[in-house]
What we know:
five-stranded antiparallel sheet; six-stranded mixed sheet
Amino acid sequence: MAQTLSDITQILRNSKNKVQLVYAFNGTGKTRLSRAFKEEVAPKNNEDEQSKIKVLYYNAFTEDLFFWDNDLDGDTERKLKIQPNSFTNWVLAEEGQEFNIAANFQHHTSNKINPVFSADYSEVIFSIDTGDDQNLGNIKISKGEESCFIWSVFYCFLNQVIDVLNKAEDRETDNFDDLEYVFIDDPVSSLDDNHLIELAVNLADLIKSSESEVKFIVTTHNPLFYNVLYNEFNREKKIVKYRLEKLDDGTYNMENSTDSPFSYHLFLISELEKAIASGEIQKYHFNFLRNILEKSATFLGYRQWDDLLSNDTVGAREGYYKRVINFSSHSKFSGEEIPDITESEKAMLAKLLHDFKTRHSFKLTI
């Protein structure tokens, strides 16, 4: 059913569940949804400096509060600058959370990377212990480490907000008395699976510690993160989960997800089956097939994912492999686009999927 972002925000607002979990592919519109939700709950034209906060959100715009000064002239004094706002001022200048932020960041990255805030909390420099009682200062951390650092700032901020709201009286601030929602969009970036699971468990524990009426919405493109959060909340029956997809006409469809837990490869197989049944096979569907094959080969112990391809005639496997590689390698680059998919290539995709499911005992109806 076609839905606008406004329709979806109403679904999220009308839910009585403590936690709502939304899965969507990258590029679907999760960040746009978080902004639309914020504008629905607390439109700018209805806010003034004295108004209380109704919604907190973490998304790409949160990360934009942090930006690099790379010292292009000297190439030595690299700093991560912090755009001051009420969020960063409160958690840093007023609450003094820099130690907890550093500890959280190091826990998910490396205890050898040391963030040091300036006295006015307007910037951060990073150094790394080299292991010989020396350290290398003013380094520029990776994009993944940067995202993890920014998430650590927000995580400590959210922890403080929850602590404040858990007090029925004598709160240290009344700024969050009207808080209704926390919207978290994809805090996962470049973490290995162990740290990703730990981050999800920590976030779930933090949300479960909330005793107020605040509701939490979490969106993600990562199936492992999605599954861990679902499993952490499912015992308490406080969660509803959705799948969000963007339709060809620019509208959206968000439906309750019924699988428990969500199996990413089964979802991709289901998407391929829909495309095959409708005849609407696109080049990106070959990416789906390759993704399924790569993950399954790793799980089953095959050295190469093409070992899972059908080899019904001499040279068939190599031919199938080349076609899948050709489609999945160029589908994102318009300047290198290959011709439209032919009927024989559509039939090939259908055959490969059927053979794969049959050979490896997948349930034929997803």
